[in-house]
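Fold these two proteins, one after the other.
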Amino acid sequence: MNAPFALPMLAVREADLRGARDCAAIEAFLHEAAGSTPFQLPGWSRAVVRGCGQRARYLLAERGGMVAGVLPLIDIRSPVVGRSLTSVGFAVEGGIVASDPAARAALEAAGWALAQRLGTPTLELRGGEVAGEGWTRDDTTYLGFVRDLTADHDTELQAIPRKQRAEVRKAFANDLIVTVGRGDRDRAAHYRAYSESVRNLGTPVFPRALFAAMLDELGERADILTVWQGDRPVASTLSVYWGGTMYPFWGGGIREARELRANERMFYAYACHALDRGCRRLDLGRSKAGTGPAAFKKNLGYPSRPLTYWRRTLDGSPPRTVNPLDPKYARKTELWKKLPLPVANLLGPLIARGLG
């Protein structure tokens, strides 16, 4: 009779994100793992450390010296909204990715043990599933928008619902130019358009250093798409690429973008650029349910899906919240909209680097 086969012992440790060996092993695992996103890449965590000054606590499960799962955590500290251990910070998704239930459970337990050891009030996992007790499930706040791409630029235009397609055609008449790049001019244009966009929404802008770090750390997996009116950037987005999917992530436009239909032009350009890069899907990220941005994405033909976030707190108290739609932030949001842009760009990064 053959002896029963025993799996090698499972061990969880903190990865060395500055070491080439750990990072290469993690990337190789994520490349093959179902459900992985660019937000679990070591470069994402390194960029957050460089750009926002937060600390990465990247947990790695190994079995027999081989990666069996990952849990990228960012220890986010903010004097404004408190502290959390988040998988993964400054991202839409990025919870546990594991090759089997045992590895997933081990990483979940290790994440909670780390939160307890650090005294972090909130542990948040953005996506995935959890098995343990004590978690609060939130699948009503955010919606994700993703769809498969069509065959070419022309069919992408036809895939846009008729009413919004008419708006894209109006944009074509406005002599708008689309560029894609990663250089200094692209970075400056992106920050100009994006920072004004979030100021107009009443939200502090992330540090410019975060966007620079993302481009540097992710290399050819990230770029900037900008819509120009002459020499003026009117809309711009920093996107990342992973697993055949384009993720337009940090994007927005100046106030005149609406009149110029620059946002419609930019969203159509996403699809064209994604096809040119060989992508098969386009993921427009998250928007809060019931908001204008969510309706805009739906009107462009992108089906919505609830995003599930899991939170657990040390004492069972309500978890940290940074939702600007929370009534307690309403007055601050309205005041922020009225700030001169240079003032908002000076103060915003000091606050936003701790929001995550």
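Now the second one:
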Amino acid sequence: MTAQPPEDRIVLLESFADPITAHLAKSRLEAEQIPCFLTNENLVSLNRLYGPASGGVRLHVRQQDVAAAVDILRYETVSMTASPADDATPADERHCPRCNSTDVAFGPATRNTYSWPMLLLSLLLAYPLRGKRYHCFHCRHEFKRSEA
């Protein structure tokens, strides 16, 4: 059995948490004529909980293409989020009223935020319905938009 030359060896370039991001990186490399392939894609797609245990979706390239691939993937990608609505508070203006931190996100509340109609509906459906609020990751304070 003959040994492969070092430049023909396949190496792990990067690991991704989800298949979509991995495919975007693979497409960028293929557009630059760098051959590559993914592994663990189906396992991570099957159940997201398998991702961390299996090392995520792995992107592999040849040893000789590592430097070029790193240069291509080094540049920051364009955000795929929609632009905020005109009435939304810009991200740089949101801050926690308690600690003045800007590490704030809007999403489902972690504490009970039931109003009487929501409480009754939650009991009838046997499923907790919670409102959305701003959450400060610094001091864990939750607040409504009017407080921001």
